[in-house]
User: Fold these one by one.
Assistant:
Number 1:
Amino acid sequence: MNKDTCVALATATGQAGLSVLRLSGKEACEIANKIFRKGPMPTFCANERGEGAFLLKEKAENAWKVADLKGYQAKFGYVFHPQSLEILDQVVLLRFKAPHSYTGEDVVELSLHGGTVMSKRVLEACLLAGARLAEPGEFTKRAFLNGKLDLAQAEAVIDLIHSSSEKASHLALRQLQGSLSKRIEALKAPLLEMTAKLELALQYPEHEDSIIEKSEIEEALRKTHQEILTFLSSYARARVIKEGYSLALSGLPNAGKSSLLNWLTGKETAIVTDIAGTTRDTLEAPVYLGQQLVHFIDTAGLTETEDVVEKIGIQKAKKAVQEAHLVCWLASVQQEPAQVWKDLQENLLEEVAVLDKLIVLGTKSDLSTEENTALWQEKMQAYLQGRPVFVLSSLQQKGLEPFVAYVEKLCQEMFDPQGEAHLLSTERHFEILREMQSLVERLCQDIHYLSFDLLSLGLQECMELLSQITGESVDEAVMREIFTKFCVGK
Amino acid sequence: MFIEDLKKDKEIYHAGHYEVIVVGAGHAGCEAAYAAARLGAKTILFTLSIDALANLPCNPSIGGTAKGQLVREIDALGGIMGKIADKASIQYRMLNRSKGPAVQSPRAQMDRKRYQEEMLALLENTPNLSLRQAEITDLVVEKFSSEEEPSKAFQIKGVLTKMKAFFSCERLILCTGTYLDAKIFIGNTSYVSGPDGIAPSLHLASSLKEYGLDLRRFKTGTPVRVNKNSVDFSQMEIQAPDEQPWAFSFSNEANLDRNILPQLPCYLTYTNEKTKEVIEQNLHRSPLFSGEIEGVGPRYCPSIEDKIVRFADKERHQIFIEPMGLSSNELYVQGLSSSLPEDVQEKMCKSIKGLENAVIQRSAYAIEYECLNPLTLKWDLSSRHIEGLFTAGQINGTSGYEEAAAQGLLAGINAVRHLRGQEAVILGRDEAYIGVLIDDLVSKGTKEPYRMMTSRAEYRLLLRHDNADERLSPKAYALGLLDEESYVRYLEKARLIEEEKQRLSALRIRPTEALSQKLKEEALVELHSGVSVAELLVRPEINYALLNRLGLTNEAMTDNALLKALVEEEVEIQLKYKGYIELEEKRIDRFQKMENKKIPEDFAYEELKGLRTEAKQKLAQIRPLSLGQASRISGVSPADLSVLLVALEVYQRQKKQTES
């Protein structure tokens, strides 16, 4: 297990009023000692080169030690650079004593005045004093290994570490805070009530109060079934948030798909030549638009071909188009809108119904006049029944903004994590709930001839499945999975 | 007493040496002694009174929900409770018959005297077994030290009787029931006594404390008994016995020549407003409410005053009137358990319909006794503190005859196996109610007298009473517990079940006109295509009675109609519930994975960072053998388990590294 002390900013970077730096591990206090002095900042003094700076007069051994603080005790003081002795910031130091801290280890937190530069310098001071930069999610990983988190929370941490965007990490954070567990508890409550009634009837068959009606159980089951379905349906949206929005670039060969992709990613991701059919496979490039991760998928040009390799490429392209959240049809503005619409219909709309997620991008606008381009856009729009049309030039790198703004807006609309109940985002949870859904369905179907012992078994299994999500019931296989994801003990 | 100190008292004499000594001849003691003797160990069974052997001091019945399953399992393992109960049953009643096979529970009213007589006769004629009436006052031990088990400071060498006879032994099984420092309460009167006026055991408890055993006080109670001639049954509802008697013992279930005692009914009546009034006016006279009784009683077996207080808005409570035996007029008034003074008991009783003129023969009372904290036991029911000591029954914090007998059987088996250096027999939670019972006691402990309930078993669709033989008999035979005759009988039944299943799968029927007509007569859905009879039987509306009417049963299966019915019942359950049995098996697989993750016995929990203090203490005390067992210890959270799993993985890797 990791015994070393790691450090990282515990608050988001950026222009905030305050940022918190966290040191966690056995030597947290010792390291803090090397860069922290209690009391107000010393008065101005020049450095040896005579420049104006706050410098620590001497690096005398400090009689007072951070370790003298009790757990949860704070101290006002300042931080200095351990080599240049430059005084960096006025801070408040807060000590947490193991195991009563977030990570379960000794923790020292420094509250700094915000600002990226200052935070970076204090971080550097910590590193020089012997700390190691924490890996993404390492504090939480340590918390899990020290028994501070339950299973669902630990899984949220894994999601957090691997989250591709801010929204995804937000989703994971909500799970970490227990919003998932709450929703699961709500699902479980009526099942638990039914089980209790049922068990009473089975345990005391001769007792006059122990009567339970099947209709009662059936009602609870049907309600549960409905709720599971709603919950399950949120998985698709959560996946978009977790894995990103996908956008397929489609069009006839040499329509400029690869050029656009290269422009977006700023590097030669796809081979671009003037020869049609250069891209024979789907190419994927993750691009951040604002805070949202969008996967641009460059598909092979769609055209009838005899080339076997190209044929496979086209099949893949069609699949990508089908699965993508948004499909862009690219065509040069030099082509007649009528022809573009015809190509579009033949290649895309015939085989895959994508009209409601289609947009058209007119490429190579540099080859046309501004006037003609506008006209092209107008004509194209008429064909598209209100779907948007944009025009751009990859060569001149012009006209990208309206298109990007449109995609960004779509992503925003797709999900507002703050406004909703917890979304189902982990595959394991999805699988468990799906299993439960089919079980509940079966129970509802069979209920009229199921004896009470079987009903009880069904209810128990449902609750056990739910417990597996929250980790109340521990499954060896799941624990192993978590274990391997964290790579402990190496 | 230390063995070296025996010499100091000149009156002490050595009365004999036994491999196994059993103290207490209640339901636990009888099973323990019988099992030990059956396994060939020279055994002696001590009792305060041979007349009180295998007494049923509370309700005169054996079995009931979950308890009936225990009795069947005891029988399948070669125990005796089921066989004796069959000889003394005066009312067979299968509970939950309509609620599904998994929760069906056999129960029978007993002729109490007959039960004792039959048990005595069996034990007196068991080879290797001696019976002795004596009070055991002291354990005889010697100092013990072992690196593997640092918590053990003493080793059992024998016991001392009140008459100063020293019986030496290799292994000791204590089955002291409710007798240890027992005290009876009726109103403000309390006195030192065992149940039914039998002398208590007054010295042994302090001896146990002396050797560091963790004792505490539990309480239980019993209702009044009334004379049958004074009861007006016409005011009550009758509860008839099952029309078709069955049997607890697998050796009796298909026995056509078996003698069954005459079957008697029970009766049902209710408390009323007046009963409530009497109790409320006299509550202050109950030792339970005045605080005189310190012992903790069972919640699910409350006294009537307890029920009135806790369920104040309930207008009536059920009272069952049960016969105590064929030759006795005494009736057990179930539901009127109380520790109120006798005059209140009298008024209470007479307020009830049908009991207006009842003549009480025995008063209701509460009894308090010493018992052990079962967390100090291992899974084989041996003590963590004294080498060679085993305990079973109420001393382990349980209540109920069946729970006691089940533990007695396992303690008897394991004492002998321990003595011979053989591996302990530990039944899994997925194997038997007995496994659930012992695992619950040892890993969770209990804060009140523990009663077995069907809801405690996670896998009860497989732990049915009807398949207890299938689950346990092969094991029992291999251990030398089950006799050859029983085993052959079991094999024969298993063979018939298998053959019948195969026959039904192979037998296909077509939707002919004649068949359709017959199905129509039965008001059933039509068949549209050919199916096997096995498939047909899965349908909810199809059962063996119908197959019989359609001429689809195998009349040549066996001449024994009882056996044929049993085989058909079993086949029907197995086929009808196949889908759900598979679901249960899947759950068991999951469970097994945790059970199979072993924890080394000397695992250093103290050094494990990240475990909460409570979990650390509990784990270090109980020392679970697997991650599964650890998961059931109260105070060990899932988070603790993940820490433990990670640590185990690291431990295994390090071990592998040092080995290679």
Number 2:
Amino acid sequence: MKKTLITGLLIILLFILDNTVMPFLVIYNYYPSVLFVFIISFSIINGKWQGLWVGVFAGILEDIFFGNAFGINCLLNMLLCVLAGEIGLNIFKNKRFVPMASTLGLSVLKGVGIFVILRILGQHTNIYTAFFKAIYEMCICLFLYRPIYKLYHRDYMKKEWKF
Amino acid sequence: MRLMKNKLAVTVIVLSASFLIIIGLSVGRKNATFAESGVGTALNEVQGRIYKVSSKISNQLSFLTHVNEIKSENQELKKKINDLANMEQHYEYLKNDNENLRKQLNFEKSSTNYTYKGADVVKGAAGNWVDELIINLGKDNGMEVGMVVLDNQGCLVGKITFLASNWSRIETLANSNIAVSAVVGGKPDNNGILKGLRESNNSIMASFNSLPLTSDIKKGDVVVTRGLDPGFPKDIRIGTVTEVQEDKGKLAKNAIVKPFAEFNKLQEVTIVMPKDKINVGY
């Protein structure tokens, strides 16, 4: 219960941060989504199922303010978080390298996904945004992964094995 | 069935299908659902304040890093003020002359009137993809989809495209889905359609198309709205021309325009509300 609450609050907080502070930290007119870095790292650490619901929740928040149709972020986040959970099964979770590489790859995938879906809906967007955002998000992952890992390995986060 | 044993795969497929259906159903909608309005309003309370603070900090910092530019801009502006003060005299004379002539010929003035309402920007663009701003006025404040939005200098920013009860979404000129009929200031023959454009370095420009080949538009000309579109007042400043190209295939000229509005730094906007809503046909 505590874990759900803390995760939920963290997602809302990072979403607000994404909308209010990140637009000003632009490099070359691009800025990252801290929320996305979080949900991917979360999914790698905590597995596919929890990643799925976190992705959907974050997606719903993003979609409220997103233009055009509702559900684009939900769909993409969900699929990518499940993928991230799958990646997390076979790695040393306490090392940063694979999470950083996955953030890069999955961010590009999300970018391409959004570009394609918006194209189908008749809207033209800039494809380069995907790549620059992905690089920026990989750098954010460099700094954020360790704290997230530590957060989810504290005592009150772990589920007790009851004998 | 083996598929039913793999709960995760089933969940993913079911959710994906439902999201795709929701996307299909909600394309191009203009009004928010009740839940969205509520959540949005709640989030906007917090977001609005934080956005203002970040915006102020960002502006202060950019001031420090651009001191030289600001100095030279200052010199240019002083000179411009001088020139404008001189022109003001001439304008007063022309205005009086015009009024006298109108009276003599019994011409009627154009009837559409507008009120202007100020709103705060609560949240910036949604992750680079679609250029939108969220403002803190919505249906309950009299907003309608399609209303024109200006910055606090009176330059064009965009249009309202989505309404919730207490907030709405504006698509800025950077979004290529917005088009407005525009004309070069002072040269009524140089008219065409203006649309948003993203350059490859992600900067926001506009492309001004379908100008007649005979137009003498050149770099530095100011582009303003023509007033033909419903709800769009005349003579709203849009931007300056940076480049002119000829499209002999379509027998037209095209130009690239740099907008006056600084979309990344907007804190407040002004909404143009026509007094005569019925005629505008929102």
Number 3:
Amino acid sequence: MRPLALLPLLALLLPPLGLAATVQEHPDFTEDHFRPTRWLLLPPEAAITRGRVTDAEPMIKETEALEVALAREAKRAFEALGYRLDVESASAEALAADEELLAVADEARDRARETLARAGNDPKGIARGRFTIGDAGLPLAAATGAEGLLLLQSQSLIVSKGSKALSAIFNPLNLVAATRTRTQVVGALYDLRDGQLLAVVMGRDIGPVLKEPDEVARQVLDSAFGGLPRRGVGQAAKRKFREAAPPREVEPVPELGGASGEEVLAAFEEVADELEAPVDRDAATAADAPSPPAEAPSSPADEAGAAAADERAPADAPPSDAPSDAPSDPPSDAPAAPPVELDPSEPEPRLAPRAAEAETIEALLAAPPEERPEPELRVVFLGDLGETGLRVRNMAPRVVRVSLDRGAWRLVKAGGAVEFPVKPGGHRLLVADAAEDREIARAAVVASQGRLAIVELWPVPE
Amino acid sequence: MDDVRPERTRTAALRLAAAALALGAAVAAPSSLAEGRYGPLPLKPKDAELLEKSEEFDELLRRRGQVLEEGPAAELVKRVGETVAPPDPADEYQRFRFAVLRHPVPNAFALPDGRIFVHEGLLALLENEAQLASVLAHESMHVEGHHSILNARQTRRKAGGLLAFRVALGAAAPEIGYLATVLTDQLVSLLVIQAIIGYGRELEEESDLRAVERLLEAGYDPREMPRTFELLGEDPEGERPAPKPKWSSHPLAVQRAAYTRELLEELAPEIERAEREHGGLRVGEEDFAGAVHDAALRSVQEYLDADRPRMALWLSERNVERWPEDPRFRAQLGDAWRVLDARVAELPEERLTRKAKKQAARERATTTREEQREQRRELEGARERLARNLARAEEAYHEALELDPDQPHALHGLGLVEEMRGNDLEAGRWLARYLRAAPEAPDRPVVLRRLEEITERLRVAAAEAP
């Protein structure tokens, strides 16, 4: 059984007050910015202990009555403030009957407890917006339709007759022993949409919790929620917290008041297709592209002689199957790229990178977007031609290096091509300068089962 | 509540010190060597309360949905438990029942009425039936030897110190009031337990030793027991403080492995005899894996959700070896590498000292996950570590896709990896595939929102591109 995590919170958050109240609130909650109106209650957890003279007895079966009462009174108290509190969707019975719901509820609750324990070390951090459960609450929101989450934990100490008798002896001697039964409750309010911990409330009562759990639950929750703002009523947050809390923008969540899933997917596909499509390339023209060029596709056995023997398409002429309206045809008077010598000790192309290569490739791939240079070549996909593998053609007037899936660099001369044996699926292509460790372009390539994927590297049009 | 004036606080501090000394004197008396009682034990009135609480606790766990009522894991634990439990308990109030709890931490415990609970996290850790049998036999010995009841009786005898301390504290710090009393009960209980720890540890060792005999009787191979302790001692996260032995009711796992290994060497003739009698001693690997498959999946997920990627990684690597054709375990391995982020996979020795663990625990308790991530990404070598871990994650995800091209977790994981690398377009493609492959996934809104954000970033990038 997961331990109650709030005991340290009780110790650290409860100020020496006669009356309990809201402990801390996020300014957005105070000011009614993005304040949830539909709340979900997870099953409250209560612990009742009878403190006897020589030991403490946990009252286990009695907790059920108190937990049921807490749920009922929380609903009443919230509705009195104008909010809706759903106590059924994630009740103990509902969770026991639905394993998937139990899993998402457990994830949200565990993150909430973890966050609350940290908040116990920095209560003012709640107002500064420091604590959040991130996305952990969204699946629960999706399953129940709630915007906010209420977590309730209570602890009751019952003073035994023996202890009271002792107090009658010791208290007159100014040696004080506990004399009254007390119940304390801690409530934590989270925004499920962005995970923000919005408020922590505490309440206490001194009623007979075993005999009158309903009444004790009513009193302790009225005490706890008494400081919460009514629905729709915004109050001015303290300036220091308003300035310290980072601004929240709670956007509508897709499929939970926001766009539908299909709309989101369609929007992405549109942007992605635009970014990946070749400039001014006509899709119909690509589909009608003639058969592969007469030049023999490079094979591993041919690579060794490529540097010296590659007299294929000169750098200034487009390949024979290129659409005639390709705007990025290399200019006819472009100078031929200087030859680059391949390592004569490696007659066969290496697929596995050397250690230094691997490091360079890794570093280039891992560079954050803001540090990457502007692409100098555009990676263009031509489509499937009926064989297996991946062919990379260099349509630019320069020699480049390419690495596929973090493999060894392979030189591709201007107008030349290299082929990689690949399995169907996604692959990562990195193109770099032939001499310097500098990225020129990158792309994700998908090779289908039994089909050849052709990638062409074209200069970026000016 | 009264204001606290400095002189009253000084007086309070002095009284507190006096109270602590009183307690120390009360509990410092040496306790006699403890043994369990393995025959009938009549109950005293206070003992009966313990049994009532056991039943209530069981009901509480079931009410809170913590007990796995059905399934292969529950059946396995029941079957093995009934094999190693004593066939005829000495007392009527003892009835052996076995259940599985939904909890990722490797643990098992016994209540005095014979209810024995095994956490799913323990099932995910173990390798075969014989190891499970050694745990259940150990817990059965606690019940058979009436350890809880005897332990409680000794606690009550020592609790005179508890009384003195509570009264003195009440006198020392009236300003603290009720809250202090509540906390004090908890704290003082711990202190009292500490005084009788020697008693608890001896009973734990006794249970280990008697469990070996029970395993032989039941036909299980007790030579799996030391390995069980080795597994229980694994701590990839380095979170278990190296316990000062007097603070732990369980001897250190490494000590338990060592002394059971020695014992098994001494018992070699008995083991050989049992092997002959039973026609071989059961280890039971073949059915075990199938029964704990779901527990293994859930345990890794719980560790990932709790931001414990090293434990998730350690478990996942074992799971992939055990179930090489199941793509979900490979996807979880990818998740573990991804959630590892810029952390090292294996903690170096200097971070496993008691002081370092305490410091780490303090930092975990006072910083949020987001703050921890930011801090570790600023450490030296973080970028390289992150790149390496993401590469390993990517590799594991692709291996999962080779087994199942539409494995949802792998698709999702690849999307997250690419997003972490800043490759929004690739990230979006993978996430879109995930959404199509798993339209009913509970985290659909999370992924859709992520995809929305990616789309917006791509739009901005496209608009700003030359």
Number 4:
Amino acid sequence: MSLVNKKALISYVIEGLLVFVLYRMQHFYANHLGFMRSILHRSRKFDLAYGHWVLPFACSLLFVIIIYLYRKKQKQALVIADYILLLEAFLYLALSQVFSYPHIPLYYVYLIGGFVIIAIQWLLAWKTKCEVR
Amino acid sequence: MNLQAKFMILGLSACLLAACGQQTTTENTTSESKTESVTKSPATESKAEAISSEVSHPTTAPEPSSKLPESHLVDPSNIKDTDFFVDATWLKKAQEENKDLVVVEGAYGNESYQKGHIPGAVLVDTNDVESLESDWNLLPADQLVKTFLDKGITKDTPIVVYGDDINAACRVAFAAYYLGVDDVKILDGKKAVWEKAGYELSTDEPEVKAATDFGAEYPVRKDEFIGTSDDLLAAKTANPDLLVVSIRSFDEYAGKTSGYDYIDNAGEIDGALWAMASESSADVNYIANLDGSIRDPEYVLENWAKWGITKDKAITFYCGTGWRNTTVFFMAKQAGFKNISVHDGGWYEWDMKHQKDPGKYPVQIGVPGTADFKEEK
């Protein structure tokens, strides 16, 4: 297995684990009082402080990724990590609007988790470019 | 990634950081407006002196509860109709003799209930009696009564509440008691005492027939409930001799910790006395054994008496958000305290109100009589 594929595999495993943790967090939230109240408290604070920035941030992130991939495509062929990055950015924008504090108290955890997944994916795409070079 | 893209990302990040700096949340602005003062008003000062002259305050943490021997409030051979706490054998017999009895598992979440519950028990989730919107206070009576009507519980339905957490069970039990359910009892111990007594748990969901009429003007026992911080102020105005008693842990009382992830500040309601009950923010270890059964209260009541908390006084118990104090309430009631109530808002609500209006909701930090003690108004 090439070094690039190994890194891709590791990053997908990490992302998969993160998605699993986020999924299990819902169950933990539903059965642990202290965790539930803490999350609700922080979600409310996050929503009050940053809620109105979520849409512009997600749009800006998608815009930057599109520009980055466009410029990358002009120099070399895009790899699968690039397409996954773009897909995740679209998903992040869509889900950031579906999730909102009143409906999904864990939403700020999901937002941050989603952002971490995109960051991992971007790092992989960037490293892939470096390896190709 | 080329230079242009890097600058774009830097620029976006800078915009984001600038936006974050312009927080306009009420939490931030009100915390900045909090003022510190050690000045006491003449009325408050004379009342504080009066209390101080009557009582002594604990100045050090009590010995760990692990050093206390196991003891029991409940005497299995002499459980009276007026008792709140009952053992598993009593409950088993009552279930067989009274088909109207409803056994309630009081818990947050359904995981424990689904793993196994006392046969015939219904689940009342604590989020069905309180909510963040109500500042974790009991829901308004009209909403609260629906929680119990949905489980077929009316004023005349005898209920026994139990749970893996004695405080969760007492919380749900108090909600029913406050509304006006005539006969509310609590299993003396956690769920495990049922199996320890030789009885099996069940995973069968019981058939529940919802009721439509509670059978009384509710809440019936509103005299034993002081809901919000404003209700507490009104109660203190109506009865200046009312003792406001914190049953939180000593570290919470001493202002060393708020006890909760979601409560930013440590301290107590100004003028609060301390009643030994909790060792941490999640237990009532000085009044409950490891298995959740209630201890013989003689030891704690002796300490309470030293600190001016006696059966002849009007007392309202509070904690962080209204769970632990309900356990203390039922224990004290069974131990002979007559004129007592539960203050629901607790430190959680009082602290939030203090941030917005320190003068109206003053707090004390530290143990009275020590060098670290101060009041913030």
